[in-house]
Amino acid sequence: MKKILMIATGGTIASKRSESGLSPQMKSDEILAYVPKVREVCEVSALQLMNIDSTNVTPDDWVKMAETIRDNYDGYDGFVLCHGTDTMAYTAAVLSYLIPKSPKPIVITGAQKPIDMEITDARTNLFDSFLYCSSNFACGVSIVFDGKVINGARAKKMYSKSFNAFSSINYPHIAVISGGKIIRYIDKKYSGKPVFYNKLNGKVGLFKLIPGANPELLDYYFKKHDAVVVESFGTGGIPDAYGEEFYKVIEKWQKKGKVLVMCTQVVNEGSDMTVYKVGKSLKEKYGFLESYDMTLEAVVAKLMWILANTKNTAKIKKLFYKNIVDDILYVEE
Question: What is the pLDDT of residue 247?
Fold first, then answer.
């Protein structure tokens, strides 16, 4: 039997009711007690790293998670990280960069309902996570949720309450799990020991465009951050109505070495700034980085990882467009 370490961080799966609403209260051993059959598929150990609502997760917490996996890496065959759903996609993306191409599986799971409720998805998600983590072909960072195995850099939370909370964006599911059986769609293996990174640059901001957005707000975002992700409309661009003001802000901060990435508010199919004048002229003039088929969560995570390791503009661009863990497959040449 394989040895799997469960790392508990809190979230809905560990929550109990209180006068103030649900809050994480259960510890790792109590959570495991609700799914005794996991011990039929693997040897389980548990570690309580933190017990927080995932809304409260910070970049420092992500580094702690990666360090905990690093410190225990040689002693286990895989890891199951119990986590809240609200920022689970960010955590999965970040760990994909902090521990890229891990030969051992790092599975992230959680639930939309606490594990002590009569009607809950928690027990199924947890068992499926241990089942997949114990398989001979599992590797890398993934989310296991509602019978789906999703690449950690491709996940997005799509529903706030439903059990099928997560989808894989612009990328197939790695596998599905049904009736205790794993059906693989993607066969991928990593070898050797992964490189562990222990730094993130949290100064990455997100500026969401709305009709009539004020260019002064983008200026403020640049003032406070080393990189800004502009979440634009459609395939990506800046409104002509305020174009000159936006251009002045962009040019000012670009000269100071700040990084700007264009992504889209549309979930599927990604950005392509060459399609429309509002995007093409901007990219030609300023050489914007753009997300293409990456998720917003992966863009933010990747920038935090890159900027913690280099400030060189050419290296930033090269790393951003490099396919690390099938996080970006399409780049306009």
Answer: 87
Cα gap 160→237, rounded to integer Å: 29
**Structure confidence at residue 237 (pLDDT):** 84
310-325 core/surface letters (b: 16 or more CB in 10 A; e: else): eeeeeebeebbeeebb
Return d(Cα 285, Cα 247) in angstroms, integer.
Answer: 9
Q: How far is CA 315 from the centre of its chain?
A: 22
**Tokens 């930033």 sit on residue:** 316
How far, in Å, CA of 252 to CA of 314, rounded?
19
Residue 286 has a pLDDT of 80
- Give every residue of the chain whose pLDDT is below 70, as ranges: 241-243, 332-333
Q: Which residues of 266-296 are buried (b: 16+ CB within 10 A; e: fewer)?
A: eeeebbbbeeeebbbbbbeeeebbbbbbbbb
DSSP 115: T
Dihedral sign from CA coordinates of 153, 158, 159, 163 = negative
Q: What is the pLDDT of residue 262?
A: 93
- The per-residue pLDDT for 294 is 97
pLDDT at 243: 63
Q: How far is it, in rounded angstroms, from Cα 255 to Cα 283? A: 15
Task: Name the H helices within the chain.
Answer: 28-33, 59-72, 88-98, 122-133, 215-224, 243-255, 277-286, 296-307, 313-320
Distinct helix (H) and strand (E) counts, the chain: 9, 16
What does the block give as tokens for 267?
């979930």
d(CA 115, CA 31): 7
User: Which residues make Cβ contacts (< 8 Å) with residue 218, sequence separation at least 6?
Assistant: 207, 228, 230, 246, 249, 250
What pTM does this model have? 0.95
Which one of the listed residues 9, 12, 124, 295 is annotated catalytic? Answer: 12
Max intra-chain CA distance, the chain = 64
Whether 310 is catalytic is no
Structure tokens at 10: 């809190």
The residues pairing with 3 across neighbouring beta strands, listed in sequence order, are: 43
